[in-house]
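[09:14] KT: can someone run the structure on this one? pasting the chain below
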Amino acid sequence: MNRDPPEMSCWNHWYSDPLEIGRLGLRFLRQRLVAFLAVLLLAGLLLIGPVTASEPLDPELRQLLQEAVLADAGFDDRFDAEVWLLDMSNRLEPFVENTKTRIALLKRLHYEATRAGLPPELVLAVIEVESRFDQYAISVSGARGLMQIMPFWLEEIGISDNNLFLMRTNLRMGCTILRYYLDIESGDLRRTLARYNGSLGKYSYPDKVIGVLNSRWFKQ
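[09:31] RB: done, structure tokens below
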């Protein structure tokens, strides 16, 4: 009998309810008074607002991207959001030293991932591998920003004046594209990541993303 490797079995469980891992982490953190106190101390800071594929573009994906750029951000549950932000801020600190910058990035990322139906931790893992959280990263192939989006995406959906180095634009497009690939691959995370990276059929990139996902961002 074929069995998924442990990390993929875990993903299949999480994918059935993308936010389940977040809820488990929140229940754990709520039990810790120190986390609650730290959130209260950070409350004033959290009120501050936020400072590649090469395949032909599918018409459905074009429509999704066009709709995506029109929506805005926000949290439904303020307490849950702040606890998640505290936890992820500590994990992100090795990559982004400035506290305000980390919180701004995490607030936007949490919304964009949730909006697209993705676990925010998965998006964090993709960004770690793609750009190591360098907002102004440019690859040798010309991909730009946190999620390494190719400029042709903007031209395809008729918003070529948008800047892929802008956090909102980059995350919105990256999450929309990733979700689209996850759907067409029926939840197969490795194939989804390979398609996102433009390396379908090869698994070094997917395995690297899944590795950091499990070791850093999903780690309890």
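[09:33] KT: thanks! The first helix runs from residue 6 to 16.
[09:34] RB: yep, looked fine to me
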